[in-house]
Design goal:
Strand content: under 5%
Number of helices: 7
Shape: elongated
Distance between the termini: 123 Å
Structural class: mainly alpha
Number of strands: 0
Radius of gyration: 34 Å
Length: 208
């Protein structure tokens, strides 16, 4: 009888010990993921959220918005004028080459600036009352559409010189007044590229 009682007590003790060990191990293995998840949640809330949202909306000013809203249609018209040249026959090769380069440079910039306005939660359309320097009117574009050969090339160069000069003026205003680093960098790039193309076009005109 004593032996049976001893065995029963021992078995009970072992069972209790195993249960306690199971609880201890269960609590330790369960708490670690919770702690790590809590750490991840705090990190994502305090670290990544402001970096991905707040600066994109806040790190620009009215000058950045106006520059971007105005330069998009300005670039679109330059691409349209270049397409007109590329679709005509009898255009001198240097003029076609210039039109190709203008389209290749300004097309991607349109997409970039459109993305900025979306990220800034700004309208893609410029507010009424603002003007864009160097834009061609309907009569100018109709004249370019109708012209052929050397006449078309001369008209394209004359119009694009004025168009580029307007873009340079707009870009210099952004450099002086803008806040967004990417927009200011693009404005500087526009000044450099288009001032160079203005000189190139002024050199081409006398040769036609």
């Amino acid at each position: 009888m004593k032996t049976q009682k001893y065995l029963a007590l021992s078995a009970t003790a072992v069972t209790v010990a195993l249960a306690l060990a199971g609880c201890a191990s269960g609590s330790s293995t369960g708490s670690a993921p919770m702690n790590s998840m809590n750490g991840m949640d705090h990190g994502s809330m305090s670290g990544s959220a402001p970096a991905s949202t707040a600066p994109a909306a806040a790190d620009h000013n009215a000058a950045d918005t106006m520059f971007t809203q105005g330069m998009i249609p300005h670039h679109q018209q330059a691409v349209e004028m270049s397409d007109l040249m590329l679709g005509k026959s009898g255009i001198p090769a240097p003029v076609k080459d210039l039109a190709t380069r203008i389209k290749a440079a300004q097309g991607p910039e349109i997409a970039t600036m459109t993305g900025w306005l979306k990220g800034w939660n700004e309208s893609a359309t410029m507010a009424p009352g603002h003007t864009m320097e160097g834009m061609m009117g309907d009569d100018d574009l109709n004249g370019l559409k109708a012209a052929q050969g050397t006449e078309a090339a001369k008209l394209f160069l004359t119009q694009m010189i004025a168009h580029h000069q307007g873009a340079v003026t707009m870009a210099k205003t952004e450099i002086a007044q803008g806040k967004n680093a990417d927009a200011v960098a693009l404005a500087k790039s526009i000044v450099t590229a288009q001032e160079g193309e203005i000189k190139e076009m002024q050199g081409l005109l006398p040769s036609l």
